[in-house]
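tool=predict chain=A
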Amino acid sequence: MNLNKLILAMIAISFFVFISENVIAGSGECTQSGYDYCYYSRYTYYSAEAFAKVYWKFIDGNGNTYKNGFPGGYAVKYLNVDVGYSGDYLYEMKNYASWDSLDDTCSEYGCAGNEASAGIKRIASAGQTYNTCLAYEAYDRNDNNGYWAWTTAGYGFLNNCGLSIKVVNCYANTDCSSNYYCDKLGTWNQWSCQLKDCELGQTRCSGMNYQICENYKWKDNGLTVGQCNVNCLQGQTKCDSTNYNTCSLSYTWSNLGPTINQCGVTCISGDKCDNGKYLTCESFKYKDNGYIVGKCGIECINESFCDGQLLSECMNYKLIDKGRTVGQCGVFCTLDSECDYKCSEGYCKSFMEYNKTMIFVISGAVFIIAVIFSLVILRRK
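tool=predict ok
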């Protein structure tokens, strides 16, 4: 924003002093207690002396001035203009192109601008933007002993000054009454003082819902774990060692104990078979005991058994009857061709061993015949 500090002086531009025997003139910036802008102009012609001075400021409802800076660039509550002057007349100008254009309106009879009064005037209220390029000019004329003199002094903003002052209801909480705060939600023209529901940082429970004070209003965060007796939320689960916990309808943990397929638990008790292997449940996990005879259909591991001369061999953990097998279970032969004479019951036998029964029978028969023959002979004698 360009602040144009240009002063209208009828005889001189900027600071000008002309001193002669009959004429004295001067102008320049000045200070006036309590005001931001000040300019004066003095013109003396013989015994007539004209003196004009103007001083003014933009001020908001909290006493902040535009020159010293509004908080955040915003005027608070309202925007006033406070203006004073020395001289005969005060004129208010809006959006003038240049000070030269103002000079053309003034003469020994006054100026053609809008006549104004000193004091405080409201120019914008909360929610409005003030963007008028405002300037003030004081005019003074003096007549004395047939001589007269006049002059003007002006200060303000010229056209296209870029002035844009937004007026808000409040900017900080201190702009509001006790127990109220400045609610700055929404756009700047919606800011307003609102009654506090709570203090920042406060928390509370509404039933089992957890609420936090944000922007001085209670914000409901709903069910929050660790707050308002809520230990968990529906659908949540957790493991406590091997114990499986689910969230109950009262939002507390319900211990279901060891549960298959949860918390590393694969079994509770008992045993089972897995492709012939015998598994037992120990500490809620299956222990692989391998292949055990008598379990899971396992008849043997790799051993062989004899049932008399009959051989049973272990194949794929099953006993297979191999019958008589040479070299096993005391079996020396299975075929006659494997012996000199005969193979009988797994043994090779000679003629005498193989036919001993028949020989014994024949021998007995011969003996009986011999005895009978002897008895016949003895009787004939």
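Residues 173 and 181 are 5 Å apart (CA to CA). Helices lie at 99-103, 351-380.
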